[in-house]
Structure to design on (265 residues):
């Protein structure tokens, strides 16, 4: 009987010990639940390239450079973001950003009242003047003040179109794109095109186009970065970084690099 009672006591002790060990083992297990995902720092930025000096393709490579590209890289670095650039078809960029296919878009996009109704813009990063472009050999037009009675091409709803409306006697002809306006100018169907100077240079520096810039700059248009409207946090990061880049001279350095001067802002 004593041996039987001793055996029962031993079995009871082993059960308690085993239970205690089992409880300890369960308590130290890692819960089988996924860790919370870290927020992504990558942003996709749509660009229309090539469009020098804002967007250029490095010769022999698939890399992009230009004022807009280097500015966006600097903004992303300041904000702790990783910018991935995606080449978008002409005249498709704003639609894609509006539908949030990209987080942002940059390609010398003018901030206009019409676009503001549809697109979220950053603060302006550059302000440019308008110029008059004519065919070489044209001696009738020497600038803004000699456009009265002339048919002048612009892009619909652009700051250039607004600028032409303010020129007494000028006959404004709006096109879906500046490319079409310049095609008609080269063909001799219109007398001039009014456009911002950097864009004008992309056409006048091609010898075969036989075009020139005449007169002084006039009016102005402000350029901004288009932001997906569903990403309010990105807008603040871009604006904060842009302000810092303006303050420390980075933007001035970039405009001198790609324009040869520092345009007014």
């Amino acid at each position: 009987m004593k041996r039987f009672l001793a055996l029962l006591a031993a079995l009871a002790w082993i059960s308690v010990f085993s239970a205690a060990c089992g409880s300890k083992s369960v308590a130290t297990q890692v819960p089988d639940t996924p860790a919370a995902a870290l927020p992504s720092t990558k942003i996709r930025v749509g660009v229309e390239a090539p469009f020098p000096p804002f967007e250029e393709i490095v010769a022999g490579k698939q890399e992009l450079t230009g004022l807009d590209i280097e500015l966006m890289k600097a903004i992303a670095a300041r904000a702790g973001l990783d910018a991935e650039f995606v080449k978008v078809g002409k005249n498709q960029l704003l639609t894609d950003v509006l539908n949030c296919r990209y987080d942002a878009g940059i390609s010398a996009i003018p901030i206009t009242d019409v676009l503001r109704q549809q697109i979220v813009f950053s603060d302006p990063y550059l302000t440019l003047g308008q110029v008059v472009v004519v065919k070489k050999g044209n001696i009738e037009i020497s600038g803004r003040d000699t456009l009265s009675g002339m048919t002048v091409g612009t892009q619909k709803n652009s700051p250039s179109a607004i600028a032409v409306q303010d020129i007494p006697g000028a006959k404004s002809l709006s096109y879906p794109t500046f490319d079409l306006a310049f095609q008609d100018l080269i063909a001799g169907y219109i007398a001039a095109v009014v456009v911002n100077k950097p864009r004008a240079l992309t056409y006048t520096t091609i010898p075969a186009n036989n075009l020139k810039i005449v007169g002084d700059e006039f009016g102005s248009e402000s350029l901004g970065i288009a932001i997906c409207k569903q990403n309010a946090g990105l807008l603040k990061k871009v604006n904060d970084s842009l302000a810092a880049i303006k303050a420390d001279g980075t933007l001035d350095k970039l405009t001198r690099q790609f324009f040869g001067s520092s345009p007014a802002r």
User: Anything to note?
Assistant: Residues 1-38 have pLDDT under 50 and may be disordered. The chain has nine helices and eleven strands. The CA atoms of residues 57 and 64 lie 5 Å apart. The radius of gyration is 31 Å.
